[in-house]
């Protein structure tokens, strides 16, 4: 039967082979799915278009936000996801792999005794992004506040200032960073 035409539905009694009910016409059954598909397709095109039109600053902020979320969720891979393969933390000379090993150790040893949850959290503030005119390199500065979950509340324990260099290799990645302590004591 050709698409888009009215269809006739007829019920037949199997035992007698006689029509058990009057014929019913079904109209426009294919129009609703096409409308839904059209709406979904338009939403998808809009979403992809907006993602492609994001500025470099927004992409860098999103990358850093994903790393912070990874730390807070206890995911070492997500916490280092924005670091280049050759990343070096210049203050401690730690490589990307060493940072990942430190995070794994933290996640295993810094747990609440009763709930088993990871006790440390971080929050980023004073974020400043400067993208070079050639859009291949950027500088990033921000502060990181470390918190420890104690007796149903988060207590600030260490604040550091971070300066980072980023390179764009398809996506933005941290090439290097350095930090200096502002307040408190390092929890690890």
What does the model show?
The chain is of the alpha+beta class and 188 residues long. It has helices spanning 31-52, 56-73, 76-79, 96-109; strands at residues 7-9, 24-26, 83-89, 94-95, 120-131, 137-150, 153-169, 171-184. The strands form 2 sheets. The chain has a 6-stranded mixed sheet with strand order 4-3-8-7-6-5. A two-stranded antiparallel sheet has the order 1-2. A hairpin with a 4-residue loop joins strand 3 and strand 4 (94-95). The radius of gyration is 28 Å and the shape is extended. The N and C termini lie far apart (72 Å).
Helical stretch tally: 4
Radius of gyration: 28 Å
Counted beta strands: 8
Largest sheet: 6 strands, mixed
Q: Low-confidence segments, ≥5 residues, pLDDT <50?
A: none
SS-based structural class? alpha+beta
Helix and strand sequence: EEHHHEEHEEEE
* Mean pLDDT, all residues: 86
Determine the fraction of residues in helical runs and give it as a percent range: 25-40%
Assign an overall shape. extended
């Amino acid at each position: 039967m050709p698409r888009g035409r009215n269809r006739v539905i007829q019920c037949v009694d199997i035992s007698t082979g006689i029509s058990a009910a009057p014929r019913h016409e079904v109209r426009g059954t294919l129009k609703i799915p096409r409308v839904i598909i059209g709406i979904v397709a338009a939403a998808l095109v809009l979403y992809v278009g907006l993602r492609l039109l994001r500025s470099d600053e927004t992409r860098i902020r999103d990358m850093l936000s994903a790393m912070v979320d990874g730390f807070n969720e206890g995911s070492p891979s997500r916490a280092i996801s924005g670091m280049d393969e050759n990343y070096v933390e210049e203050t401690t000379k730690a490589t990307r792999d060493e940072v990942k090993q430190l995070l794994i150790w933290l996640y295993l040893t810094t747990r609440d005794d009763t709930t088993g949850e990871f006790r440390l959290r971080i929050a980023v503030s004073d974020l400043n992004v400067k993208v070079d005119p050639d859009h291949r390199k950027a500088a990033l500065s921000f502060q990181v506040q470390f918190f420890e979950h104690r007796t149903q509340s988060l207590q600030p324990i260490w604040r550091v200032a971070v300066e980072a260099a980023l390179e764009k290799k398809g996506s933005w990645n941290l090439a290097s960073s350095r930090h200096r302590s502002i307040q408190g004591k390092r929890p690890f």
